[in-house]
Amino acid sequence: MSHIKPENADQLEEAIKWALSEEESVEIIGSGSKQRLGRSVETSHQLDLSALTGITLYEPEELVLSARAGTPLVEIQEELIKNKQYMAFEPMDYGPLLKGEPDPGTLGGMISCNLSGPRRLKAGAARDHFLGFSGVSGRGETFKSGGRVVKNVTGYDLMKLMAGSYGTLAVMSDITIKVLPAPLKEKSYVLYGLTDEQANRAMSVALNSSCEVSSAAHIPQSISSKLPFEADGRSITVIRIEGYEPSIVYRADKLASLLIDFGTGTLITDGESRSVWQKVRDAAILSISQERSIWRVSLPPAQGSTFVESLKLEDQAEYYYDWAGGLIWLSLTDDGNASVLRDKLKGMGGHATLVRSVKTDDAGCPQHPLESGEHALMKRIKDNFDPKAILNPGRLYADL
Amino acid sequence: MKMPDPDQSIVAKRDEIAEALREIVPGEGVILSDRELQVYESDGLTAYRQPPLMAVLPQTVEQVSQVLAYCHAEGIKVVPRGSGTSLSGGALPLADAILLCMGKFNKIVDVDYENRCAVVQPGVTNLGITKAVEGDGFYYAPDPSSQIACSIGGNVAENAGGVHCLKYGLTTNNLLGIEMVLIDGTVLRFGGKHLDSPGYDLLGLMTGSEGLLGVVTEVTVRILPQPETARALLLGFSSSESAGDCVAAIISDGIIPGGMEMMDKPAIKAAEAFVNAGYPLDVEALLIVELDGPQAEVDYLIDQVSAIAEKCDAITSRISQSEEERQLFWAGRKAAFPAVGRLTPDYYCMDGTIPRNKLPLVLKRMREMSEHYDLRVANVFHAGDGNLHPLIMYDANNPGELEKAEDFGSDILKLCVEVGGVLTGEHGVGVEKRDLMPEMFNEIDLKQQLRVKCAFDSKALLNPGKVFPELHRCAELGRMHIHKGKLPFPDIPRF
């Protein structure tokens, strides 16, 4: 195993030119926090970006931050907190799921996996806050796209293409993102004992109100005890509002009256609320023993409970809903029947990803299969960025 | 601006092509007469005019697919068009290209409140979406100034913005899915009513691709519950610097207003003379700051922003006391373009974005350029996100003045790039800024973008002559020069 660790952007280009000339593929890693995510890459070379670190520009009043791709997210978050700012899309930490402990990883990994969190409903994902980058394509050429301003339609939006490409198109060396003022206060309104179907409707009522709900999740009774919160053996439906004190007090009252048909809830505030949402964000309330698989299902929010019901899950299965029903995390005692699971999504739309397989070697087809025309188009894009398939080959799909 | 030379062999086959297309789109769906084609010879960038080879108005996705497949097979160029409001010439026809007009795709397909989205055909206007859902308390957030006329398909192609994108994002942040047709006729769907998709984000890539990658035939947008209330402040300053400082102070305080617009003195005077919005005329810069959301929040933030404005030496400050007054504050800003239009036979609207703190420098340099070119300029500015709209006033009847205005505009955009900004914030590159692309991108950057084009449209038939200053054949772009063994690779740590 060779391990190549460039220390600057020039060395990164040199490394990829070498790989190209030798027709040797490389696995791209930052901190390695999400190495188990997606298909495994068959190669004997690792391209390690962990030496490309450092914030290169941060202008809080301009809401912009640039850093090298290997910069640990923790470092960025510390800097943001000092200025009462944050990444509004709330990137999840895959550490608890994949490694059994927190590991937020690097900026490059966050963008490459297009991370988001419970606030996605309101704030979008990493893709929506990604302003520009510089990187090296599989052709061994350094190129850039975007810039440092939010409003920019100059040329194709290659940031969208890079976000979620799992390092299969180019290796980014420098990344610029939009940052925002962090909300001063947060409260979550908690309803107890709702069925999945009731909770799905309650979350919809909340989201469709003018209360500016930023997150809504439902945790069934079977796993609600894993929340840092007294659930008393009941299911929990949590609805988050954030902002200025007078505003959230007002909105919390309004939510309570709007949701009166679903019972009387309680409010949790700031630290307590944040710790609940962190667990929800990181799927850290599911059992993650080696004998269990983890599925991530994204679907139209209002269809969440209908979908789960159609699965007729075994008793040992664990699941919960985020994104007002639009994201379901599922833990099974085997890998489940992928085609049955995916078939159930037909007609309603959405996709299912096998995040963690019970098999230690390969997760089979972790990503939802694509329609043939769409797949062919993605392959042509891959070929145009990385014609010799030297960058993370097969990470997304066998040929991507 | 030079457009690609028309392919005379295509022009010569005009009747034959029309006949073939009438097989696909029967009746009046193929327009050939000079008089009728006049309607289509220009878009919002009226300095350029060119009648198309013919206009085709399909009504179904199947027809779009067949028209494109035919054009692909025959090597005929295609320029897609929505409502034709592009300010950068994105829908400018070509003499040897059919103009594919999507105006008949004007239906709302599905409004799904449970999933907070609407599925619409691409010819539905931006405002049409809000109109369809406002009775139920919802709206579609992006609001370009042309929203009464511009189509959602065009909004996708241009990644349209508006005055509220500081808080609510651009088109790209408000889309959930599209259906589109590739030049070879393949119909594809990206996204849907769910929030993310597997594989590459082709929905995001298509947004803002200016009609060069495919033709959008259906759009699923996010709709939002209407904010409970909105109020605006009208703040006057003795200099654009202090207005700029106020914008920075508001954001530094952690406030992201629904809208934050700035106008300079010439723009204020023009707008006030036009709509009598009650703007102060003795100020150098005017800010409109709109706060929207729950009543309690808006009341709280109005007080905060008032206090900040006072600290930033605002010389006038008014807070809207009613919905009518709020609308009046906006009336002047929204009418700024036509208001400037009354002062001058012609005006040229630019669209650069800059880092906000460069505003004083950019305005100063713009004043110098205005003297140099001897052309007046008025500025309206999406102050929150640094998007400038200088309006250069000129008279096209004076020989050479259009060229002078264009040179002035180019200088402004080069300045935007020089200070760390970009050529276009929301109007698109189109024809207008095509030749300025090398100011922002080097050859490698541009070639990588062109390779994306190759993946979608290897014969370069869709909207040629737009966005990219130079076309390269895809075969040439695909070539690689690999020097085997010549990269000793000595300096990189390996272990």
Tell me what you see in this structure:
The complex is a heterodimer of chains A (400) and B (495). Chain A is of the alpha+beta class and 400 residues long. Chain A has helices at residues 9-22, 73-82, 95-98, 107-112, 120-123, 158-162, 196-207, 245-258, 270-281, 304-311, 338-345, 372-385, and strands at residues 2-4, 27-29, 45-48, 55-59, 64-68, 85-86, 130-137, 142-146, 170-178, 180-181, 185-192, 213-219, 236-243, 266-269, 293-298, 318-322, 327-332, 351-356. Chain A has three domains: 1-182 and 370-400, Uridine Diphospho-n-acetylenolpyruvylglucosamine Reductase, domain 3 (2-Layer Sandwich), CATH 3.30.465.10; 185-281, 2-Layer Sandwich (Alpha-Beta Plaits); 293-356, Alpha-Beta Plaits (2-Layer Sandwich), CATH 3.30.70. In chain A, the strands form five sheets. A five-stranded antiparallel sheet of chain A has the order 4-5-9-7-8. Chain A has a four-stranded antiparallel sheet with strand order 12-13-11-14, with helices on both faces. In chain A, strands 16-17-15-18 form a four-stranded antiparallel sheet, with helices on one face. In chain A, a hairpin with a 4-residue loop joins β4 and β5 (64-68). The mean pLDDT of chain A is 95. With 495 residues, chain B is an alpha+beta fold. Chain B has four domains: 8-101, Uridine Diphospho-n-acetylenolpyruvylglucosamine Reductase, domain 2 (2-Layer Sandwich); 108-225, Uridine Diphospho-n-acetylenolpyruvylglucosamine Reductase, domain 3 (2-Layer Sandwich); 229-337, Alpha-Beta Plaits, CATH 3.30.70; 344-432, Alpha-Beta Plaits. Chain B contains 18 helices and 18 strands. In chain B, the strands form four sheets. Chain B has a seven-stranded antiparallel sheet, sandwiched between helices. In chain B, strands 5-6-10-8-9 form a five-stranded antiparallel sheet. The longest helix of chain B is centred in the last third of the chain and has 18 residues, at 401-418. The model of chain B has no long low-confidence stretch (mean pLDDT 94). At the A-B interface, β1, α1, β8, α6 and β10 of A face β9, α8, α9, α11 and α17 of B.
